[in-house]
Amino acid sequence: MLKEYENRFLSSEVPARPANEARFHVIPVPYEATVSYAGGTERGPEAILEASDQLELYDGTSFPGEEGIFTHCPVDCSGAPEHVMNRVRLAVLAALDMGAVPVVLGGEHSLTYGEMVALKERFGSFGVVQFDAHADLRDSYEGSRWSHASVMRRAVADLELPLVQLGNRIFCREELEARKKHGVVAWDAPQLCRDGLPEKLLPDDFPENIFITFDVDGLDPSIMPETGTPVPGGLSWYQALDLAAKAVEGRNLLGFDIVELAPREGHIVSDFTAASLTYALMGIAQRSGKR
Which residues are listed for Mn(2+) binding in this entry (predicted)? Predict the structure, then answer.
């Protein structure tokens, strides 16, 4: 039987209920091993959980919390990356066993690999929709294939998953070449900010089952300053939510994550924004009409 974490997501508004009766399973993963600029992502999950108690049950459109939110105890992030990824995998599978939508709170972006392995094990092929300032398509970074800068390379090269990238705006040459090699579809921040929401966001042959990974640095630093590598020129709040809703429309959202929040003491805006983003994506999942 799953034990619920004492610091529950939105505990101020959502009563506790058994794991098998909750549509959303929140899984904190305080993992930080390969950050390349500012640190602090290991504190991200706890900051999001604490900020979530300041949310309201109504997300502006519906009441996703009424379908139940169960919060797992944080994943043990000690030891080698392979062991951490396997623990993330097992936590996601436990949520899926309950018929829930796994909602993973990071932690650095590399942890997304464990989620994708679990989803591929359970569902086979699915599509990945990535919100991010960076492409994360390096084969390795600073000597590690487990780097947060390599997680999407693992998705397309190792797991052979189709990928759509949203809001990217800083690259190395290797990443641009990897996009071409692996057929990655990209709507970069300059194009989105200048031209608006594309009429057709995902390719016609993109899988019905999708997974969203949301690195908070995909948002503009004016609204999300507390992140490991903030990059100017990012997505606005409603622009990001409109993109997420369009990606999910007519498809089945298997799960999602929110990663790379790096909270700073005395600076609560980003914590609350990340918690709001988490709940907003729950609402988008609820209104998709699929489970």
Answer: 109, 132, 134, 136, 215, 217
pLDDT tens digits, one per residue of 248-275: 999 999 999 999 999 999 999 999 999 9
For the chain, count helices (H), then strands (E).
8, 8
Alpha-carbon distances of 282 from 146, 175, 252, rounded to whole Å: 28, 31, 13
Q: How many CB atoms lie within 10 A of CB 81?
A: 19
Tokens found for residue 20: 């098998």
Alpha-carbon gap, residue 201 to 222, rounded angstroms = 25
| Nearest alpha carbon to residue 98 among 181, 2, 8, 184 | 2
At position 268, the amino acid (one-letter code) is I
| Annotated binding-site members for Mn(2+) | 109, 132, 134, 136, 215, 217
DSSP H stretches of helix in 204-268:
237-248
Distance in angstroms (rounded) separating the CA atoms of residues 145 and 166: 23
Give the distance from CA 284 to its chain's centroid.
Answer: 14
Q: What's the CA gap between 202 and 273, in Å, rounded?
A: 26
Host H or E run for residue 274:
helix 269-287
Contact assessment for residue 2 and residue 94, using Cβ atoms and an 8 Å cutoff: yes
Parallel, antiparallel, or unpaired for β 163-166 and 185-187?
Answer: parallel
Residue 133's pLDDT is 97
Binding positions are 109, 132, 134, 136, 215, 217
Is pLDDT above 60 for 42? yes
- Residue 34 pLDDT grade (very low, low, confident, very high; cuts 50, 70, 90): low
